[in-house]
């Protein structure tokens, strides 16, 4: 059924593209408005086969390359300062304005995405979780996944006991692609569990990973500050993705304030004078969170809510369109996804 759905989606997008309907729609919905594209990871086929990141945040290098070429042809791609100035003025954007953003600052942003952006002279903005940059640390999701896969391969008593207690014994009988799907579903489900339980599981898996040396830093790692400085010299802007990358709506207001202020101080240290912008981890925010972000001195904050941006919109709730391989692997799908018709 999923394959049939994907085929129908592709046929629909191609029909709209080849008949010119998508271009008429683009002119209409992006008249004096902007679209902000949200990327995360840009991986080679070999890297995708070793990464524990969810497929919903990944595009391939080849796909990203033609998407950036298409973006230059289809839109007016602007820098962060240009985008913020149009937003601030409130009189509207130039038709078809586009801002390119990346969440998390993964190492592949420097290794794979940056050369493409540099060659095509496309500006972009990367939101950094400060505690992870240059630290060798992994996000809890990737670290837990690596630990679960290590347990699946371990075959020893400790590994099997861990799988049994977490109710994922089937991992021991699966290939990597099969296990990755099960692990992704398990970790996604943890997000719905109480914070204390999630933390307990995370700590146990982290300790297990350390003992088994199951870390995967070469793929699921982050840029360092020297790489960030080099990227900045070539037109890449940087913003805050908080300090520790927590779900901010689960924190008390003083903890939210600390996340916003501490990450702002790091930005000001490395990129003095640059615009101060924020991106809510996991897209989760509420009135308290946005208030603390504004109080900390940020000019704008970006969400994961889909949609377009008009001059005068609330700068603390900027909408974006998530781009990943499955939904955007043809030019027609790419444009249809951006315009919200698939």
Automatic annotation (TrEMBL):
The lineage of its organism: Bacteria, Pseudomonadati, Thermodesulfobacteriota, Desulfobulbia, Desulfobulbales. It is found in: Secreted. It comes from the Bacteria. Signal peptide: none annotated. This is Polysaccharide deacetylase. Keywords: Signal. It holds the Pfam family Polysacc_deac_1. Its main location: secreted. Residues 96-342 form the NodB homology domain. The keyword Nucleus does not apply.
